[in-house]
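Let us practice reading a record.
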Amino acid sequence: MRAAVLSQFGGPQVLQVLDNVGVPQCRPHEVLVRVAAAAVNPLDCRLRAGYGGELYRPQFPLVLGRDLSGEVVAMGSSAQNFVIGTQVFGSIPPASSQGTHAEYVAVPEAHLAEKPSNLSHEEASAISFGALAAWRALFLTGRLAKGDRVLVVGSSSSVGRAAAQLAVAKGCEVVLTRYPCKCFAVTKGKMARCVVCGEHDSKCNDNEEFGSFDVALDTVGSKHSLRHAITLLRRGSGRYITLHGRLPIHVGKNGLLWGGLGAAFDSTRMKALHCACDEIGYRWAMMRHDAHAFAEIVKLVQDGLLDAKTGWTLPLEDVSRAHVLVEGEKTGTGKVVLKLKA
């Protein structure tokens, strides 16, 4: 089969599209999906560049990609949720070495759902991974409740867009800030507004302009976005959630044992620092599959309350260009998608 293969860390040019990669074999609980479309996430670019290196290097050659939409063509011995020919969408586990930027991928059937007929494969492939990351960050890590005020920093990302829609569906008031300075419609609800902010725009740290927030989700991960979010959180009960935790960095440098211990110390230190100095809760959001979250996401997609906007659609052969677009944030207002099937 054709697949975009990573055999060494580096720039986009290290990705190779090969024609002779073996088709994955299904484990009992998996189904084999012929991939029609697969999104390119910022995580793919970071992994390609060496993020979590010691964790992934032993697994070379890697196939990147987490999101997918396609057709079930084979089933493991214990798989029973789908029949051959079912059109599905979903995502694979974050640590998988055999990703979705290939013609075929074996996926645990619990990670898939039937594709809504009103979505194209390209649209469906852009939803799952970002929405799961947003759901876990807001509801599991941030303990978001109906009526909370939510700040989403970096609303142009797929996670930021999904977070806004999830929070609105929950009955929360949402304010979004975006870098660079251009707004776009993020939700179909009436409880969200988008605010244009530059890195040195004082209005974006003005409590009189925004009021105080119960939860701030930071998808940017810069020093400025951290300070911007913390400034606007409610003292004593506000929760700051970042998608840029340092666990993969620690593990990538020092292995699972010492890296895990280093990350635990780092996380505890940051929690104590921000609790003492800023009177807010500080948490890292960790992405992994969550069956309950995925079921909620699928229902919202079916009800038309959650979607994903696509930008560039490219053939698999242009995977290096796709990484350049994602890294350069030249994706317009949507996700870059690789199209594998006509």
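A brief commentary: The longest strand covers residues 30-40.
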